[in-house]
Amino acid sequence: MLQVSPIKDADARAAILRGVPEAGADAQILLLTEADKQLGWVAVDIKSSVLRMLAMELGGAAPADRLSPEDAFLADFLMRAAASYGANHGAYRISSHIPAIEPILRPLGFTGENGIVTIDLIHIVHVTG
């Protein structure tokens, strides 16, 4: 079963975030695992009520310009988990700063340019309250 949760190892979190200079002080790494196997991660933070996906790794590498069907599935799974995380932490929009995953986001309604696409969270996850 696939599971996404914030990374628990503070040193591993810090090491990943060193490679994401635009990450804010509240940045988090959401880790995608299946059983004990790490499948990928997404670096996120929240700025002005927008959950920003800043970097992603799938299978040990940044997403390729052309995603395989499996990588597209995993990237979509991570995006939806990030959206849920954002909704639970006060965000109302989600943005992706990861141009490689833009082709899977635009059909969902994400819009934007220059490698940054956004959408209201309500279009991705059920938001209550």
TrEMBL record:
Name this protein carries in UniProt: Uncharacterized protein
